[in-house]
């Protein structure tokens, strides 16, 4: 007899941090639960106040998980036209200032009771498992799917000692994905290769962007002026997010691009430097703080400039296409999905970037077909996810090492051939378990200090069992 699937989606960030791993898993949970055929739980990090102040914009903080959940649901339901049906849970986490990332604390598999543990979706499985010390995902869940969001190897290459560190990060990513995931989905071929992986873009866009695009094309059909602004870029304001490449191009070709106005939107560690670099140009380049891409000021831009090659699949590129804009982006694996869109202009070199930018400003965007609008939607992304994750197939209960009698000699032979491979994987998982349980080793590999277990404050905030204090004996 078939039973309803329970899908637990674990991710590495949450609103109000407007990052891809906060927004995309949220929409994924909503759309997977939309028809009521599945029980879906989204599991997101909980930060104590001090860390919230470091991460969340505009001084937004939450005193309780219920307050935080209310914020997340209100944000989501303002953007979808149906009632969200998924559960929301929090796991303890801390913010790593040097990595600018949220890292899990303790064994986060415990957020899902054993009786509900069915399918786990790990958004950024490498990130979630670098320091994972707890139950093995494959033992607790019947099926574990990893989704690769971030090109960590490329980011590390751009840092100090990057050439030395990037092979280590690449090996660590492969290691934890192999031992903890049954299947890995890479959003594009821009990422490193992973064992048991497929390439498929399983992201969609906020429906509001498609509504904006429909309104713009209606204006164009009436002969109205739909776009009154030139070009812009939006993204986290760090050099590695495309700002370095864009400002280089604008600086090098100031004369050819002298008639255009470019606006940059973003907040981040390199904001001051980006503003200084923009001021040094003779072009009309203005810099603004980051804000929601769906806000009215963005509706009137005609061209989205995105030379970034560190993204896996750029969410803002998809959003710009949905809004009816022309996008200028590099011929790079991260942009492969967007090549099917007539408003996506792909350049191969700097000269072509200039040529296509001028062409885009002189032309009208092409209307999106119904098929292409569907391709950008979360309905289509959910279909792609279910197919890529193979969730419509029948899988064994929990770990594939389940005990069943196998009568046929061919099945017995197949099991024997898999056994050495599984033994190696089990040994590898055991090694990772031991290393991740040693505080000195964790610190050496970049874990947040004392993140092996939740501290007393986190336990109180999340309603967890308080850690027992060691009693001191008098001599």
TrEMBL record:
Organism of provenance: Canna indica
Catalysed reaction, written as an equation: a 1,2-diacyl-3-O-(beta-D-galactosyl)-sn-glycerol + UDP-alpha-D-galactose = a 1,2-diacyl-3-O-[alpha-D-galactosyl-(1->6)-beta-D-galactosyl]-sn-glycerol + UDP + H(+)
GO MF annotation list: digalactosyldiacylglycerol synthase activity
Glycosyl transferase family domain mapped to chain residues: 230-335
Cross-referenced CDD domains: Glycosyltransferase_GTB-type
Family from the record: Belongs to the glycosyltransferase group 1 family. Glycosyltransferase 4 subfamily.
GO cellular component: chloroplast outer membrane
Major subcellular location class: plastid
UniProt keyword annotations, A-Z: Chloroplast, Glycosyltransferase, Membrane, Plastid, Plastid outer membrane, Signal, Transferase
Region (Disordered): 399-428
GO biological process, alphabetically ordered: galactolipid biosynthetic process
First-tier enzyme category under EC: transferase
Cell location: Plastid, Chloroplast outer membrane
Compositionally biased region (Low complexity): 403-415
Documented EC number(s): 2.4.1.241
The protein, known as: Digalactosyldiacylglycerol synthase 2, chloroplastic
Domain of life: Eukaryota
Entry-linked InterPro entries: DGDG1/2, Glyco_trans_1
């Amino acid at each position: 007899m078939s039973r309803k699937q329970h899908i637990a989606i674990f991710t590495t960030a949450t609103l109000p941090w407007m990052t891809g791993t906060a927004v995309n898993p949220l929409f994924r949970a909503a759309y997977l639960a939309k028809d009521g055929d599945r029980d879906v739980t989204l599991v997101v990090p909980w930060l104590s106040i001090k860390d919230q102040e470091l991460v969340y914009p505009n001084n937004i903080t939450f005193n309780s998980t219920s307050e935080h959940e209310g914020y997340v649901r209100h944000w989501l339901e303002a953007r979808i036209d149906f009632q969200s049906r998924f559960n929301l849970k929090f796991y303890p986490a801390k913010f790593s200032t040097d990595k600018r990332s949220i890292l899990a604390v303790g064994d986060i598999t415990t957020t899902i009771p054993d009786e509900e543990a069915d399918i786990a979706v790990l958004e950024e499985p490498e990130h979630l498992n670098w320091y994972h010390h707890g139950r093995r995902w494959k033992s607790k869940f019947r099926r574990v799917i990893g989704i690769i969001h971030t090109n960590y190897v490329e980011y590390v290459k751009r840092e100090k000692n990057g050439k030395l560190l990037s092979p280590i990060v690449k090996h660590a990513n492969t290691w934890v994905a192999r031992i903890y995931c049954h299947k890995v989905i890479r959003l594009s071929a821009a990422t490193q290769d992973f064992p048991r992986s497929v390439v498929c873009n399983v992201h969609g866009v906020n429906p509001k962007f498609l509504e904006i695009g429909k309104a713009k094309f209606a204006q164009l059909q009436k002969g109205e002026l739909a776009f009154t602004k030139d070009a812009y870029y939006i993204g986290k304001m760090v050099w590695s997010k495309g700002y370095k490449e864009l400002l280089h191009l604008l600086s090098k070709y100031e004369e050819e691009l002298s008639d255009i106005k470019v606006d940059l939107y973003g907040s981040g560690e390199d904001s001051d430097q980006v503003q200084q670099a923009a001021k040094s140009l003779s072009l009309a380049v203005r810099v603004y703080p980051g804000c929601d891409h769906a806000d009215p000021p963005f509706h009137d831009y005609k061209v989205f400039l995105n030379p970034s090659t560190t993204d896996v699949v750029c969410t803002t590129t998809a959003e710009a296409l949905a809004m009816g804009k022309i996008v200028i982006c590099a011929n790079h694996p991260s942009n492969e999905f967007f090549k099917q869109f007539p408003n996506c202009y792909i350049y191969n070199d700097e000269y072509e970037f200039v040529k296509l930018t001028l062409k885009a400003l002189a032309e009208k965007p092409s209307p999106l077909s119904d098929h292409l609008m569907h391709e950008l939607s979360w309905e289509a992304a959910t279909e792609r996810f279910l197919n890529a994750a193979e969730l419509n197939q029948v899988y064994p209960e929990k770990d594939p090492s389940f005990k069943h009698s196998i009568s046929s000699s061919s099945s017995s032979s197949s099991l024997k051939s898999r056994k050495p491979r599984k033994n190696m994987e089990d040994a590898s998982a055991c090694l990772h378990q031991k290393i991740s349980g040693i505080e000195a080793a964790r610190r050496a590999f970049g874990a947040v200090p004392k993140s092996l277990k939740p501290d007393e404050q986190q336990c109180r905030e999340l309603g967890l069992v308080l850690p027992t204090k060691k009693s001191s004996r008098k001599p």
